[in-house]
Amino acid sequence: MFVPRPEGGFTQLLAWSRRILLTKPSAEGRAGLSAQTDMACCAQPDDAELVAVEAFNVNLQPEGQVKIDELTQQVSTMKEQLEKRDAEMEKQGTAIELQAVQIKQLKAQCETALSMAQEAAPAVEWGCLTQQQKFMVQFLFVLVFSVIAVPLPLLIPINDPNLGALGNMSFFYGYNIFVIVYYLPGQYRRLELLLVRPADGKEMARSSSAISYLGKVTWQDTAKRVIFYLLVIFGWCTGYFLCAVPWGTNLIYSYNMLYGAPPTFAMVDWLFLVLADRSYWNVKTLILIFAYNFLTLAPVLLLCGIVFASAFFNTPVLILCAALASWILMEVVGIVSDKVLQILIPWAGYSLEHYYQVGNSLVFSCLLTFSEVILFPSTNSWWALVGVVIVDTIGAALQLRVLWKCVVSDRSKGEGISQETREALWSQCEVDVARFWPVLVALPPLIWLMDDRNPNRQYYYLFDCTTAEHMNITVVCILVKLGWTCALTTVDVVLCTSWGIGLERAKQLMKMYDKHWVMMTATFALSGALFTSCWLVKHDGLRLLEVLSEC
């Protein structure tokens, strides 16, 4: 066998062998070494190499040959050990890769389990309440406060209207305080939604409360704003009193109060800008707020006129048509209000993004429901109930018709529930709520006004002639209207569910209670106070009807 002798003699051969033993060759190195060995074995040596090898063999034998054989054996053994070690390392690498895959799977399972646990765990709001518990608290607050708030002004002692403004200070600084306290939270919340800048699309106040301007500030700012709130209340009562001073002791001049109400309420709305940034202080904003104020409060006077006319003439035809006339009036006012505001809001530099949440449908429907409920005791006729049922049915049918058009449009586009449908659902929820709550809110004060034990009963034109028979008719009519309202709401829910928007309707209702529950409560309380204990339903505000009345 011919073995190529490395340059440098046997000493370099030993060094080369030791390097092989101590160094782990890479896969490429082993491949290259094997190739070189094969080439060395397969290559035909020339004469000089053969002479060198023979001389080397002669010099090495016999002791040199033995050492080379031992060295070769050791190299072969180390090669086998290296191969075994490589196999073990490959096996360990495979095991590590498998463990890495298992760790990734376990991590994914943990993340999935954590997300499921978070979804299963109820979200906590208001510190300790779940979303369902929070909704129930808001629901109960709307019910309890609305029912209690409306009869409270009826407990204020009222003097003889012939004593004039100075003789009725309890009216201006008693009942009117209740009115402005009910008015401010709801109206200021609506103004927050009305005055939204288009640049960022964000509300002036992010909180869901109607008095959100009191939150997320330092205690010094909070104290200043509370003082501002109290000054607004006192200032409005004083301004309204000054408007009624010319009244004197002559009831005919009591209409000065009627003329003084719009500007004083507009001043209260303008004072909201004091809480806002100075960038909102401009003439366009003042015009926008005044227009919104007028369009919101003007229907109250017209509705009262319809109720008073039906109560005075007391004929079946007029009573039957009174509810229809009231509904037509509110629909016209609502349409005109939307058209005007959708022009004025962009003109004043604000966005219409949150306009659908301002609550116009809630306000108008609430006023309409109170006017319908007041028809029952004031006319002492079942015709009022018939007219109310017909009007409520027509109104519900028209709402569903608008909603069905939105659903058909969404299906034709195939893009899911559109923003237009969500806004229509929001409006429908406002109408349903406004048809339900005022009936419950109005029942206690109406019963109290018709009770002979009420010392203030003699000063209310609509109730000073009522008897026990009126009370029975009123209670029955209110219960029937409540039942019919529940039936119409049930039909709405069933149809919306069959159209595939039942879940979205529930979400809109939950959102309305969550975002605007204080505004809803204030609206119900204010409307109830206006229609059951306001100056408009007293003799001092209805001189003509008092003269013509047979009572």
UniProtKB/TrEMBL annotation:
It comes from the Eukaryota. Keywords: Membrane, Transmembrane, Transmembrane helix. Coiled coil: none annotated. The chain crosses the membrane at residues 139-158, 164-184, 226-247, 253-275, 287-311, 317-337, 358-376, 382-404, 517-538. Signal peptide: none annotated. This is Glycerophosphocholine acyltransferase 1. It comes from Durusdinium trenchii.
